[in-house]
UniProtKB/TrEMBL annotation:
Stretches the record annotates as Disordered: 1-27
Matches recorded under InterPro entries: 4Fe4S_Fe-S-bd (IPR017896), 4Fe4S_Fe_S_CS (IPR017900), Co_F420_Hydgase/DH_bsu_N (IPR007516), FRHB/FDHB/HCAR-like (IPR045220), FrhB_FdhB_C (IPR007525)
Taxonomic superkingdom: Archaea
Record-given protein name: Coenzyme F420 hydrogenase
Database matches in PROSITE patterns: 4FE4S_FER_1, 4FE4S_FER_2
GO molecular function terms attached to this record: oxidoreductase activity, acting on CH or CH2 groups, with an iron-sulfur protein as acceptor
Family annotation (Pfam families): Fer4_10, FrhB_FdhB_C, FrhB_FdhB_N
4Fe-4S ferredoxin-type domain boundaries: 39-68, 70-98
Amino acid sequence: MSKSNQPRIPETKGVGGDPRERLEDVADPPGKIWFRDLDEAVIEADRCIQCASCVAACPSDSIGIDEAEGRPTLVRMCTGCSRCWDFCPRSGLRYERVLEFAAEERALEEPAIYAAKASDDAAAAGQDGGVVTALLAELVEAGELDGAVVARERDDDPLRGEAFLATSRTELLEAGGSIYNQTMGLGQVDDLLADADLETDDPDLALVGTPCTIQGVTALDRYDNPAADPIALTVALMCTRSFEHGRLVSRLAEFDVDPEAVDGLDVSGGTLYAYDADGGELLAEDVDAFGAAGLRGCDECTDFVGGAADVSAGSVGTADGETTIVVRTETGARAWDAAAAALEATAVERPETLEKLSAWNRRRAESILPREFDPEGEVGITYEQHLEAYDGTDREPEPLNPARVHQYEEWC
Ligand SMILES: Cc1cc2nc3c(=O)[nH]c(=O)nc-3n(C[C@H](O)[C@H](O)[C@H](O)COP(=O)(O)OP(=O)(O)OC[C@H]3O[C@@H](n4cnc5c(N)ncnc54)[C@H](O)[C@@H]3O)c2cc1C
Ligand code: SF4
Ligand code: SF4
């Protein structure tokens, strides 16, 4: 596999008019990009999509997850190695190029597209057809996978998801359904494995996540970052937007919906629904009314279908109670075949809906993305290139949060 497009560490940074004068007193050795730079350009600028690629990519485990804020944070000394920048789809990683090389190098000639539903107890546990749950449960039961990094609702915080390593059918059934906040599972694989105490030292896991998370792990894998080693199968949940949990819950409250009473949420056909435990509808509201609760970085995303994943799953284009499935790689096709006994699959009723939504999503992103959208470009975006495109826009780097400056004084 050619590595000519490997993310590049720029030889210089901040040369020729770096506008961030507040950092002039910090002497950065040439070529270094610190987590601090990513923090300002992405996290403080409210563009982070919480994919956790930076957490996974860091070779010195210097980046952790701020539990309260659900975002990456520095937890020990940053060496300025730039890996977090290189693998961040909102800064150094040209994600559209990742999608392009995934299509060139990994995709089947023709992706297989199905309308499917689980033929077993996963149907009731899942969000749509329960297909993702059924697929993973079959593979785990057959010993093809040692587990799957999925999401489940936290006990102590209604509607808030957390990353979870499910290693049995029972656990997968418990984790069925969609969680509308990012859980940063990609950044927690090692910790989840340590807690799970599996019998093998060389596990094969599935990673389920939003398309941006799958872009991150695909890039990590392509450039031999060990963080991707345990991931044997990737499943993307089709997505036009994820939400910041606190803002989502506040917005629900503004519609007189008690988050404690909500058993599940669904976004379908432009409407956000909230249901109670008996399936009763608590809310059906235009999803645009929840726009301010969404992650602002999602506006820069064109990848509704999860084009880098082995398998993608969504609801668009199929009837209620079914999942739209795209099987894109040989790994995905092998997984699909191995789980066939638990699935009922037919042709997608309205394939054009999938294409229309993808096209709309791409138009939205291209109209907002301050940099050029270039699937053929270099996969690495240098620090200077980023500043050139973003400075002077409403997405330019923001100064560090004063409450966290001490971390950088201590560790950088
Ligand atoms: C934020 C978000 C936005 C979405 N938006 C759309 C959309 O606009 N259009 C569309 O067609 N489909 C969308 N989906 C996908 C859809 O909601 C279903 O997940 C998909 O159809 C699969 O259904 P299923 O019944 O087969 O999956 P299930 O059998 O319910 O399995 C889903 C699996 O995904 C895991 N999971 C759920 N949420 C997360 C998460 N946030 N991070 C990691 N793992 C998770 C679960 O633990 C479970 O293992 C979205 C999903 C999410 C999470
Ligand atoms: S977008 Fe992803 S990689 Fe970038 S800072 Fe946020 S979590 Fe890290
Ligand atoms: S819209 Fe894109 S960036 Fe936002 S969560 Fe979904 S895949 Fe990630």
